[in-house]
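[scheduler] slot 2 assigned
[scheduler] job type: sequence-to-structure, two independent chains
[scheduler] chain ordering preserved from manifest
[runner] begin chain α
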Amino acid sequence: MKLEMIGLNHSTATLALRERAAISPDALPELLERLVRHPNIEGAAILSTCNRAELYLSPTFHFDEAELRALYADMFELEPEDGNVAYVNRDSHAVKHLFRVASGLDSQMLGEIQILAQVKNAYTSALELACTSGILNKLFTQALFCGKQVRTRTAISQGAVSVAYASIEVAQRLYHKFAEKNVLLVGAGETTRLAAKYLGDAGACNWRVSNRTAAHAAELAEQIGGQITSFPPTAEDIGWADLVVSATSSPTQVVTLKECKGGLKSRRRPLLFLDLAVPRDIDPEFASEDDVYVYTVDDFQELVASNIKARQKEAVRAEELVEKEVHIFNEWYRENRIAPSIQQLQVALETIRASEVEHQAKHFRPEDMEEVDKFSRSMMKKVTSLIIANMRRAAADGDDLTLARAVTVAFAGKDKRATEEILEKLNHELSH
C-alpha cells in the first residue's frame, strides 16, 4: 500500500503552532498543485481546521520520514523543527487515522459533528483540482461513509458537551420551540454569542441585547436582528423576556431581584434564567419566585459531564465500526492490487485453452467437439480459480506474488513437467 499522512492537531501542537499551520481557502489550490507536481506524489489532499493541519499523500514510493517532515514544514511555511512535532502514519495506519478523524474519535470534543463536513470539503477541494489519485478517492469516500455509519449506529454525537450548548438543551426542556419566545442576552462576549447562535439555530428570532459597552451590544444586535437595551437590564426587560441568557465578566451580580421584581408582577408565563457567568450574573433569589427558573454553570457542567461519559461509552462501539471499515478498505486494496494480474492470467489461460482445443481437434469427431470444448472450459476454470486463490492469499499476507510463482504454488506436489509447460505457455502469451 502506498499511503502516507502527516499532521498536527490539538493533542500534539500548541495553539500558536496550529495557528501558523492554518491554511486559508484561497491558498489551498496553490498548495495542492505544488504537492502533485512533486515527482514522488501521485495524489494529495489537505485537511485544515482550527484543531488540525494534515497532509494525505499517495506517493510513488514511501518518503524517508525526515524528507516527509521537511516537506510538511515547507508546505505549511513552518520552521524545520516544527515538522518534527508532526505525527506520521503510513498505509493501514493512515487509513485508520482518517477514519477515526471522520468519526469524531480524534476530536478535541469527542463525537463532534463538524469534522465530517470538513473532511468532505478537504476531499472535494482536492478532487475538483484533479489532485487526487485512485487510492485517495477510495480512502476519502470510505472515510465519509465510516463517519456517517458511526453517527447513525452510535450515539457518540448526542448530548451537549459544552456549557453554552448544554444551557440550550436545558431551555428546550421548558420551551420546545423558541420562535415565539422573547430572548434577552446580557453580555456580548464569546459565550453569549455562541448561545445566541445555538438559540438562533433552534428558531429564536425575538432578541434584546444588554451590554456594558453599547457598541458591542449594537454589533451583536445587528448580527442577530435584535434590539439593544440598557445595561443592566431593567424590570421592563425582565417582564418582556421568556428567556434570559447572561455571560458577562462582572465581579458582581448584574440582574437582581430587588431591581427587577416589578417586571415579574404582570407575568402570566414562565421565565428561565441561564446564568453562564462565573461569578454569577443572576441573583439566585429569583428562583424563589413562582414560575421562575434559574440555572447556573454548575448545573450545566453536571449535564456536560454526564454527556461526556455517555459519549465515551459510545466511543467503544465507534472504534469497533472503524476497525471493520479499515478491514474492508484493506481487502479492497489487496483485491485492487492483484486485479490487473488476474485479468492478464484469465486472458492468457483462455488463449492457451482455445489453442489447445484447436490443436487437438483432429483427434476427435466433429460431433464430439462441443463436449471437448465444454470440458476444457471447466478444467481451465478450476485451474484459474486455484491460481487466483493463491494470489489472493499471498496478497492478504502482503506478498507480491507473480503469476509464475502463483502457478508454481498452485501445482506444488503435482507433475513438475506439466507445471513447467503451463508456465512456458503463460510466459509466451503474456509476452505478446
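[runner] end chain α
[runner] begin chain β
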Amino acid sequence: MTSSATMSDSTQPETITLVSNDKVSIVVERRVAKLCLLLANMFEDLDPSTDEAVPIPEVTGDVLKKVIEWCEHHKDDPLPEVNPDYRRMIADIEYWDQKFLQVDEKMFFDIIMASNYLDIKPLLDVCCKTVANMIQGKSPEEIRRTLNIPDDLPADHLS
C-alpha cells in the first residue's frame, strides 16, 4: 500500500490487514473482508478506528490470498437466493468460479476448509457444488478414488 488507508465518514479505515498462520499479511478492503462472516462479526466487536492486523490462525497465506481473490471478484454480487431445486443449482457454477477452482487437489480442499472457517457461505456452496459434480454418477469405489478416501474395510467385507 502506497499510503495509509483513508478514513471514511465514520472514521473507519477502508482497509484491514489480515495475517495468515504462516505470517503472510494481506491488505484488503473492509467491504471485501465482510464477505467472510467471521470477519464481519469480528469487525462489530473491534474499535471502528483500529488499524490493527487481524490474525487468521487456521488459514495459510496461499489459501487466504486465493479466498480473498474470490471475495474481490464477488464483492458486488447480490446475496444468493434460497433455491430448493438443488439439481439445477449444481449445474449453475459461473465460468469464473469454475476457472477459479481449477487448482491442485490440496489447494481445492484447503479453500473448502478456509471458506468454512471464515464463514463464506457462497464460496463454500460453489466448492460443494464442484465436489457434487466431481462425484455425480460415480460408484462408491470411483468416489473413494476421486476424493482420495482410503478403503478401510477389511477384505472379507468387500465380497
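[runner] end chain β
[qc] chain β: The radius of gyration is 19 Å.
[scheduler] slot 2 released
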